[in-house]
Design brief:
alpha+beta; Alpha-Beta Plaits; 4 helices; 26% helix; globular
């Protein structure tokens, strides 16, 4: 992946305003065979990138590019635990189309599933912000 933005939050970072405008995922990963443990941080960054605004190719970064929007909308990995291979990813809630659970899950889980750096991953938890829960109508009964 050609990671052009920093997808790792500074140590100790937490989503602003108690995360109420963020969708938070908690992941447990297993690195692919041949990927050393020292690459855990890169894998966490790649998960945040691949599931938000990252791309596998270098993109135009000139004056009229979408890089500024990508920087604003990017997800960030935080609360990294290299020993347990767990971390959280914070996504701005406006990155997702409201009412579209299939699209949301495809973004936060489906894109990560095909990453070559990973042998396996577990999506342990998702914390949904109110605007997304409210947009799901009766389906929101299954979100807590």
């Amino acid at each position: 992946m050609a990671v052009q933005l920093n997808y790792i939050a500074p140590k100790g970072w937490e989503p602003p305003m108690d995360g109420r405008d963020y969708l938070i995922t908690y992941l447990d990963i297993e690195l692919a065979d041949g990927i050393p443990d020292e690459k855990f941080r890169d894998a966490a960054a790649s998960c945040a990138a691949e599931s938000s605004t990252g791309t596998w190719t270098k993109v135009y970064a000139g004056k009229d590019s979408g890089i500024k929007m990508a920087e604003k909308m990017k997800a960030v990995a935080y609360d990294l635990n290299p020993e347990k291979k767990t971390f959280k990813i914070a996504y701005r809630s406006d990155l997702f189309e409201e009412g579209n659970m299939a699209g949301l899950l495809a973004g936060v889980a489906g894109n990560i599933d095909s990453m070559k750096m990973l042998k396996a991953f577990r999506l342990i938890d998702i914390k949904f912000p109110k605007n997304i829960v409210n947009s799901l109508g009766s389906n929101a009964l299954y979100c807590t």
